[in-house]
Structure prediction request, 256 residues.
Amino acid sequence: MTKITIKVFSKGHDLNHSGAELFDQVARDAVSLRGRFICALSGGGTPMALYSLLAQSPYHESLPWENMCFFWGDERCVPPADPGSNYYQARQALLAQVPVLEKNIFRARGELSPQLAAEDYARQLNSCADPGLDWPRFDMVLLGLGADGHTASLFPGSQETHGISTVAVTANYQDRPANRVTLTPDVINSARNVVFLVIGVEKAEALVATVTGTREPVRLPAQRIMPADARLWWLVDQAAASRLPESIAGIEIQRL
Ligand code: 6PG
Prediction:
């Protein structure tokens, strides 16, 4: 049974610190219980402050970096040194600053065509698969939310998929690279912890529609994220939460 919590922060600073504490706790627990922590990072601008925090003290010292494995929820099909690459952005803000092992960084190869990159990424996921799955059961998946309701590279109007781990996608959003590779909802929904980071009033409509609206997973792909047995966290700022009602059935709301 999944427990859903929305934490509404009056200060962005507190949101990022809360995200860092959660990441730290889950990572240390996973390593002590199972010997590894395996996560999927998010792209977009929102998680950058969190990545920078994790690169600093106390997390730089407390996290078990050598037992941590990094994938991404999605990747843009650009070379790994391109500033538009999700891998590149996370590498700059976090991975280049900490003693993570190169062999534990699993990036989608954005320099390939979307189809080849999706196939290659599926093979990498399979190389870390948990029993009964063709992919790892992620300890944590970080996600963003688009103003149009997308998450990872699951965009409005895209086909729902079943039983596969990756999909090649072409979608225009803002001025970002259109060709992409994404994890599928099946992979994200098998995770132990899923954390959405949502900041800004431009996300308010998408957030309220995703968590309180009628189920429309084709129009609102973030609604496809429904883990069966996990903790699902929404760490949001007041602006993004401005359309949320006081209470939502089945969801704990904490106003901080
Ligand atoms: C990407 C993403 C995408 C992102 C959202 C939110 O590669 O673009 O992973 O799903 O998380 O578009 O992006 P912002 O945080 O920049 O608003």
User: Anything to note?
Assistant: The chain has a mean pLDDT of 97.
